[in-house]
Each structure stands twice: as structure tokens, then as C-alpha cells.
Amino acid sequence: MDKDYKQEEYDPYEHRKVEKPSSDIRATANLIKASLGSGLLAGPLAFSNAGWGLGLIGTLLIGFICGHCIHILVKTSLGCCKIERKPLLSYAETCKAAFQNGPIPLRSYANAASIFAEFSLLCTYVGVCCIYTVLISDSIKQLIDKYVPSVNISIEMYCLITLIPLCMLCQIKYLKWLAIFSILANLFLFLTYLICLYYIFANEISLYDKKVVGNPARIPAFISTVIFAMEGIGVVMPVENAMKKPQHFLGCPSVLVVAMSAIVFFYSTLGVFGYLRYGDVLRGSITLNLPIDDWPAIFAKIFIALSIFFTYPLQFFVVFDIIKKYTDGCIKDKYRTSIDIVSRSLGVCFCVGIGIALPLLEQIINIVGACFYSILGLIIPGIIETVFRWQNLGKYNWILWKNILIVLFGVGSLISGCTVTIMDIIKILNNKIE
To answer: pTM for this structure?
Structure first.
């Protein structure tokens, strides 16, 4: 009774005061960009693993599941805010509050749930920042090597060159201003998408030799690729918490519905048509199948590099937000601005340093992505909604059964994604030895 009274009495939205709040359009741009990055270009390869028929159905289904998990995470966070009488909660704070207000035997695990969530977020987004550094540098190197062959610089040097602009870009503190770069990144990604479609439809598309359903052994690779491409769960709570009208995040139509519909549309269309055009000769990114000597293809490579570059500060925002939470109390106000600048720069240097030093970076990050995106985007939302709503799981406990299926799907994606990536690493290492 007391719990219901608190929920009716306290409205988090009325007490929420946000410095530099963002509009619905900016929130949508941030959410799309956080979820739909360079993984979009791996869509055709994912469809070659699943087949065009199963791939299309699977993308729609996974998109729905990912969107639903975001919905229940935000809904649970709002419910926890009402009980805790707080205007907003982060991802980790939501996990902690859900356990604190759940069944009595689970309340002692509240701190552990919070720490585990933050550790998962930190590992995931440090990894994303590392791989983005290498992807930006690799794109620049490809273009310079092709058109300015007299300049012979290693990929490590290009990483160091990108360090300065990345440090400057990551000094942006507010999601409201980051949304401007997210809009630019979305524009460049959309232009790349259009260029890819231009080459896809330039020649005849045939269904004759294309698989409706792919090799069952490669379906786990399809699932992990789609989840990695669509998930941006770590940015969801910061985006919702920074909105001028957070009540517009959920519902229909809403920021979440518009963003997830756009993500699923772009991924499924490029995936299915890219596979039907190029078949099983597809490479990791569809841009690698484009002719390097054509200007549209050259612009596609430039646009994707710029898109990743402008996405970087949004991914880094999650990393710094976690670090700031634990360091803010130790910093005096007069030093706060200067220490903020230095610590942001050091954080970028750390991510770039790992990107330079770590071999097989893409494969390592794929393991982190397959592991932690499944945990953050599927397993944790399913668990915390169940824990929080334990006293009222709906008719026939349908919420419990629904979340059991989501968690099982997340665990399966985690295991299959890691297994496929480890097998790929072993194959690469064997090829090097031979």
C-alpha cells in the first residue's frame, strides 16, 4: 500500500531539472546514432549467413525484442524513480533500485547488480571507442594509400593523428550539443546508405542463386551481428534523462518507436538488397565491395569515416559519465573545469592507446560486444523488470514467462556470438602460422 501511495504521490518528471535539455528531435537523432553505426554496413554479410528470407524475419524480430527491452528498462527506471522519490536514475542506479525494491531475499544483491551493470557498460563502451579509433584511421589510410601513394604512414600513426581532433570533440559536455554531431553522423551514414543502394540497383538483382534460409551453423553469427548493430542500450538512459519532455520517450508515436522503426528499416533494406546483389562474395563491410576508382564509392568511404568520427563522442559520453560519478566528490569546484578537460583527454588517449596496442582488435571487440551487448540490452532489462514487478507479474505470470524467453535469447546470443568470434580468431591465427 505504501509503495502504491509513493508512486501516486511523486512524479519524477515534475522534479527533473536538466541543464541544457534536448528536444525530441535531438533525442531521436542521438538514439538512432547510438544504435545504428558502422554495423549497418555489415548487414548484407549478416543476411548472407542467414539467407534473405530468414534474415528479413530475424531482423524484424530482433528489432522488436531490442526495442521492447529498451521500453521495459525505461519503464522500470520510471517506476523506481517514483518509489525512491528521485527525478532520474542512470542505468546502474535503476538496477540497484529494482533490487532494493524487489523481493526481500534479493535486496542484498542491489549493490552487486549496480556494480555489474556499470562494469558491463564501461567494458562495452571503452571497447567501442577503441574500435572506432581504428576504423577511422583505417578508412583514412585506405584513401591516402590509394590517392597519395608517396605518403607511407602506418595505421598506428593515423591513430595518433586522429587523437587531437577526438580529444577536442570529446570536450562536449551536454547531449544537447552532441545531438548536432549525431545529426551530422546520421546524415553521412544515410548518404553512405544511398550510395550503396545506387551500386546495388545499378545491375540486375537475382533471387535465383540466393538462399532463403542459410546454413544453420552460421545463424548465430547473424544474430550477434544484428544485435551488435542495433543495440545502443548504454546511451538510452542518458538520452531519456536529458530530454526536455521525457514523457515523449515512450508511447506511440514516441522517440523510441520512431528511432527503432528507422533502425530496422535501414538495416533490413540494405541487408536484404545487398545480399541479393553481391551474394556470398560479400566482405565485412559492403563499402569494401564497391569499386574503389568510382567517385561515389570514394565518397562512401569518406562519409562512413566522418560518420564514425562524429559518433565517437556519443559513445565516449557513457564512459566518462561512469568515471565522473566516482570522481566528482573528490574535486573542488575551482578545479572542476580544468580537471574535466584533462580527464576527458586522458580518457580518449587511453582508448586510442588500446586501439594501437591490441592485436586482432576487431575480433576482441566483437567478443566484448557480443557478450556485453547481450547482457546490457537483453538479459539485464529482462531480469530487473521481473525483480521489480515480482508482486504483480500479470495474468498467468505472463511477464515472468516473457522475460524468461528474453533472458534465454540473450544468453544464447552471448554464447553463440562469443563462440563464432573465437572460432574466427583461431582461423585467423592458423592462417598466419601457415
So the answer is: 0.84
